[in-house]
Write a structure and sequence with these properties.
The structure holds 2 protein chains of 2 kinds. By secondary structure, chain A is an all-alpha fold. Chain B is mostly helical. Chain B is flat. The chains are: A mainly alpha, B mainly alpha. At the A-B interface, helix 1, helix 2, helix 3, helix 4 and helix 5 of A face helix 2, helix 3, helix 4, helix 5 and helix 6 of B.
Chain lengths: 110, 274
């Protein structure tokens, strides 16, 4: 039963966020400050999600070293993204880099 | 403005699109309409392909790991079918695994997905003239990915009245793929227990980095992202993903502060010149 409430709640909340502005569209205008603040939302949320994922892969210990493939993979993905400016290349390249680095680690070269 | 990353694949698509319009001018009006809608739909799907590929491992892992976290098969599938929000689903799965009560998970979903309000706000000028049914369908599928692709199409200067079909094509492709991948992950479940070793769980990090990069165009945004990342790390221990909310707020505040400082400096510079 909890699962039912959980999914209904999540679905409602998500839909309402995505929909609610549409019926009001004629009556609302965002102030310049609000628009500016909203503009920072996507990159800051996405960053706040991935930084702990990359630096605390097990959920609690900070792993700031080359032996952490998530960190190395994230850095390489960022470099690939900057250079290629192509989303597909960034994602596929980043994942390849991550897998290769895991092999390097497992082979004991580092 | 968002799509520096997708730019390379664009020119071909728009060229093709222009051709279609020119060619169909001689056709009867209805036929031209249908053809234009269809072209928009398929172009939207095609331009979403890189993000669909990025979502494949993400969806499979979601299906695979959900059982271990304590979500039933129906619950896992239901989440992909009705919520349709990748990162929120992952976070919810983690919280279910940690035994968090459902109202708190719903609250976290609200926070994590609040960024989508910005997406609707940005698309308002284009979506407000559509009938409510269209609005509801497009809003349901307004993920990060579809927004990033659709905003580029709406921004094109041509006056095509069927640009919303492009967004529909993008969301239908994302939605179908997301649910298929969840199902594959569920089916593969026990076979893929060592999924962490495959590196599939890194897909979300790679996809999000790819989506952040186009935003990094000026110093205030860099600053906002740095502060948000550092805060997320420091506040990680807080319960119920509170750290995520606080880190985002800190990042936004940092960005605005940097932006204000920068514009003040420019103003001061201008004043001196005069």
């Amino acid at each position: 039963m909890d699962t039912f409430f959980l999914i209904t709640g999540m679905a409602l909340v998500t839909f309402l966020i995505r929909y609610s502005l549409l019926p009001l569209s004629g009556r609302i205008t965002f102030s310049q400050g609000t628009t500016r603040a909203l503009g920072y939302v996507p990159p800051t949320v996405l960053t706040a999600i991935i930084v702990p994922a990359a630096l605390l892969p097990d959920g609690h210990t900070l792993q700031f070293s080359f032996s952490n493939p998530y960190l190395v993979g994230a850095l390489l993905t960022a470099v690939i993204g900057r250079l290629s400016k192509n989303l597909l290349v960034t994602i596929v390249g980043g994942m390849t880099a991550f897998v290769l680095w895991q092999w390097v680690l497992r082979a004991g070269w580092i | 403005m968002l799509l520096v990353i997708g730019k390379k694949s664009r020119p071909a698509g728009f060229l093709q699109y222009t051709n279609t319009v020119t060619l169909s001018l001689s056709s009867p009006l209805d036929y031209m309409d249908i053809k234009s809608k269809r072209t928009e739909f398929f172009n939207g799907a095609r331009d979403t392909l890189p993000l669909v590929i990025g979502a494949i491992p993400f969806g499979i892992i979601f299906g695979t790991l959900s059982g271990g976290a304590g979500l039933s098969t129906a619950g896992t599938m239901g989440m992909s079918l009705f919520v349709f929000a990748g990162s929120a689903q992952f976070i919810a799965m983690g919280l279910v695994g940690a035994g968090t009560a459902w109202p708190l998970i719903v609250l976290t979903t609200f926070v994590v997905n609040f960024r989508h309000l910005l997406y609707t706000a940005a698309l308002l000028p284009y979506l407000k003239r559509l009938p409510p049914g269209w609005q509801a369908v497009l809003a349901f599928g307004l993920t990060d990915e579809t927004f990033a692709v659709a905003v580029g199409r709406y921004g094109c200067s041509d006056a095509n009245p069927y640009k919303h079909w492009y967004q529909l094509g993008s969301m239908v492709f994302m939605y179908t793929n997301w649910n298929l991948c969840t199902a594959v992950g569920l089916a593969a479940g026990r076979m893929l227990t060592s999924i962490g070793r495959w590196g599939l769980d890194f897909a979300m990090v790679a996809a999000f980095i790819g989506m952040i990069i186009p935003y990094l165009k000026n110093r205030p945004t860099y600053f906002a992202v740095l502060v948000s990342g550092a805060a997320a790390l420091l506040l990680h221990g807080l319960p119920h993903k509170l750290g995520l909310i606080l880190a985002t707020i800190a990042g936004i505040a940092a960005g605005i502060a940097a932006d204000t400082l920068a514009s003040r400096k420019t103003d001061a510079g201008k004043a001196k010149e005069i």
